[in-house]
Fold this sequence. Notes:
By secondary structure, the chain is mainly beta. The protein is built from four helices and 25 strands. The strands form seven sheets. The chain has a six-stranded mixed β-sheet with strand order 2-11-10-5-6-7, with no helix packed on it.
Amino acid sequence: MARGAGPSPRPLLLLLLLLLSWAPPGAESRKVVVQAPSQVHGFLGQTVELPCNLQPLEPGVQVTQVTWMRRELSGEAHSVAVFHPTQGPSFPEPGRLHFAVAKPGGELRDASLVVSGLRAEDEANYTCEFATFPQGSGSARTWLRVLAEPENHVDIQEDLLGPEPVATARCVSTGGRPAPRVFWSSSLPDRNVIVTQTPGLLPGTFNITSQFNFTPSRELIHQNVTCRVEHESFKEPILLPLTLNVRYPPEVSISGYDGNWYLGQNEVMLNCHGDGNPEPTDYVWSTIRGSLPTSAVAKGSRLHIHTVDKSINTTFICRATNTLGTRQAELIVQLKDEPPGGSNSGLTLAIILPIIIVAVLILAGIVFWQLKKSGRCCGKPPVNRTESYSPVNTQQDLPQENGRGAGGKS
């Protein structure tokens, strides 16, 4: 080794590395701790506060600055508010944001940020960061949700002028953020539901329209359906009941003919039923030949037939009309030549006659069997069933002739 050379630098380098890597006991407790809620809800157009609080620091540690950063959904981050202990707040967009309690010259522990006039684009991740000396920095993140409570209503729309009438029960939820969820609850079969979504009046809001389409009919009168709207701003779903009191053209049918009308019958009647909403106001009777028979008289929904003749053997037509239209029904009448009882007499005789014949044969068989058993048929002599007896002694029983007994002397 050359004379006058200093000590080797290797031990000094090792000593420096040991000093840098060594930390005094309890150094982990000096970490800067910041507390903030993971999520905050605010309503569109209103004011919301983003809480942010610094936990107590070690003695001698000072806060040098507070910074609020906003990270967009795209991942881009930028500063929205800065507070310096002596210089006070600074905002890139002044007027809508301010610190809730932080004041210049005061103890900077609460950096809660207030946002006024919430917009849809304010929804993002916000990071609150405290910079200190000499401990360094600490931060906490909050997700700001911007909500808008929708307005909801139900109604019925009718399209009754086309060839097939159609009605629609509508459930409309407007101005919601995020988009509300709309459902129908009904016992009706063959439901045809169409849901559409459109932008709301305010930016970032949505309108949802759910259409429950059906054909108006008598069976749907007073039926109930319910629209159910779900949204994050509701404590529980909104239920909107609706009664389907819809209008529809008449549904026409004819009654009164039982299939047993006959020539010469008197005073029969047909009834025309025009079930519609509103009720039909006009009924017109006719036949496929045109005008009514002379013995038929129309009185509103009833057709009186005084005498059933050959002209009644036709097809009757009834037209019922309400404010929505006219519909008709047809009924074919086929007359009989005689009353139902007369036409059935031959059938009745055909049923009863075999029964009588069978009964006679059974009775004859019984009589024949009795005669055969007694021997009075088939050429056999009758059996003498009289008991035998001894002849009477006539000599003893007869009186004596000439006053003499059987053994007397003359």
